[in-house]
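From the methods appendix. Each design record in this collection lists the tokenized structure first, followed by the designed amino acid sequence. Records were kept in a plain field format so they could be parsed without special tools. The example shown here is representative of the layout used throughout.

RECORD:
FOLD TOKENS (272 positions):
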């Protein structure tokens, strides 16, 4: 997608300009403005409604010039053991180590915990990151979980209804038990919000441990055959599809099963 300034140099809101330049998300850009860290043509600007003209206005953050840049959109197959961070995390490797030096300006859209793997988006487009990651836009994420015991349909129904853990409601939108026995189960789940370690915490309440967790899909974008530890650029059609799905309730990849239909009926679920 092009970041060439509008041919008529139309004014845009300062926070939008900063987000589109890849400085930060729009909300974080508003914070930068309010903190007095942004100047326009040599003057500190603290008013969120201020506008600038791309290609003409001299915009700086902490004294560093901010210019429109090429927007980058990447899909990565995050390996387990890597931290979703741009900074070093002690002895743990970070995902930026998997990218060449020229693409170090991108940052992760949302998070996968260190033990998890699968599809991770990276970008330098703050507005795109906000649209995809913020819960209010309702972008669905699909996960494959492998657990250390049997997951029953009653457990799946409980996950769809929601489980409280330390006062917080944890909830899946759809659950499909693919295989299940007393030693191992494979379950596909669809989430909208993706709270911190949500899937692991839900199953822990049910007395199960997640042995492996793979994010297979974000909105309409699938992990596919992308090898572990590798990345690729998204094409313009994929970016457009992700943005179109944000807030418009695209269909989840996990089929609506009996678990979904039965979730509205009371069910007693006892931990193992």
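DESIGN:
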């Amino acid at each position: 997608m092009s970041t060439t300034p509008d041919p008529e140099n139309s004014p845009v809101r300062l926070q939008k300009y900063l987000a589109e330049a890849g400085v930060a998300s729009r909300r974080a850009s508003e914070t930068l403005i309010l903190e007095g860290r942004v100047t326009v043509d040599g003057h500190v600007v603290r008013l969120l409604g201020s506008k600038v003209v791309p290609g003409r206005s001299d915009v700086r953050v902490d004294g560093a010039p901010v210019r429109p840049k090429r927007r980058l959109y990447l899909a990565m197959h995050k390996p387990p053991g890597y931290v979703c961070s741009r900074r070093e995390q002690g002895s743990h490797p970070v995902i930026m180590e998997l990218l060449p030096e020229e693409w170090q300006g991108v940052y992760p859209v949302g998070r996968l915990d260190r033990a998890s793997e699968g599809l991770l988006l990276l970008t330098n487009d703050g507005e795109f990151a906000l649209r995809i990651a913020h819960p209010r836009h309702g972008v669905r994420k699909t996960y494959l979980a492998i657990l250390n015991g049997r997951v029953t349909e009653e457990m799946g129904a409980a996950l769809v209804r929601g489980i409280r853990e330390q006062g917080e409601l944890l909830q899946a939108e759809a659950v499909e038990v693919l295989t299940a026995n007393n030693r191992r189960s494979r379950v596909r789940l669809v989430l909208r919000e993706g709270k911190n370690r949500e899937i692991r915490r839900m199953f822990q309440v049910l007395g199960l441990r997640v042995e492996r967790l793979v994010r297979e899909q974000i909105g309409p974008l699938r992990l596919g055959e992308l090898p572990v530890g590798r990345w690729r650029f998204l094409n313009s059609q994929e970016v457009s599809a992700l943005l179109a799905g944000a807030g418009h309730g695209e269909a989840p990849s996990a089929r609506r099963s009996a678990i979904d239909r039965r979730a509205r009926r009371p069910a007693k679920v006892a931990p193992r």
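APPENDIX NOTE: Residues 12-65 form a domain with the Structural Genomics Hypothetical 15.5 Kd Protein In mrcA-pckA Intergenic Region; Chain A fold (CATH 3.10.290.10).
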